[in-house]
Amino acid sequence: xxxxxxxxxxxxxxxxxxxxxxxxxxxxxxxxxxxxxxxxxxxxxxxxxxxxxxxxxxxxxxxxxxxxxxxxxxxxxxxxxxxxxxxxxxxxxxxxxxxxxxxxxxxxxxxxxxxxxxxxxxxxxxxxxxxxxxxxxxxxxxxxxxxxxxxxxxxxxxxxxxxxxxxxxxxxxxxxxxxxxxxxxxxxxxxxxxxxxxxxxxxxxxxxxxxxxxxxxxxxxxxxxxxxxxxxxxxxxxxxxxxxxxxxxxxxxxxxxxxxxxxxxxxxxxxxxxxxxxxxxxxxxxxxxxxxxxxxxxxxxxxx
Length: 304
What we know:
By secondary structure, the chain is α/β, with parallel strands linked by helices.
């Protein structure tokens, strides 16, 4: 297998805070890879190191077989980076913004490429509109167009759909899927576990460490506990009761609970009895396939 990115024991600290703590994993060429975790997990620090914007304290990485420490400039010529705060120029039109980034990357005959990108992102009808007048979703599409103008082999996307409306978010994912079909490697960070399901491989990250790294399917299969979904009333009372009086992991989703049990046949009866003793009515129950959220919370609980 050919790898686009190989990361080896990367470490980065800020004063006494360990932002990235010895992470090791790899991303195959043409893969859509998701680095998944909450704010403060170390995702942005990782992506900034891989794009050459931050220097690691120790460890190393290879990007497209270039050494991160000694060949940083060669890496920058082959990648695109869409940061959380991508700087579009509000007083320039869509066309002018793309032209500006083409000039930065030394792309001389950019007009045909720009037209392709505008069609690809469905921004052609708005090409004369100022960037300041665009919606959040359109700004992200324009930012992606600017990122792609020099035909990078890898694109790094730092939480690209945060704050974007659901329709634009869906459109953005369609664009990413089409990019992957063209052989571009996509390395993205996201706090959204539903987005992680779309990736070929994911790494679950928390407090600077990788807790799990595999396909979404295999990450979910790694949870040995059974997840029981319980519809009950009153739901908040049920959640607090399980949380305070048992060692079971419990999560609340609207009118239902997800409870992780190691031995369903033995433990569910005890759980049912506890709820009945606390005047909680069970309306329905079923064993469900674990979600990435179930796995993530389990791994965080186990580590704490």
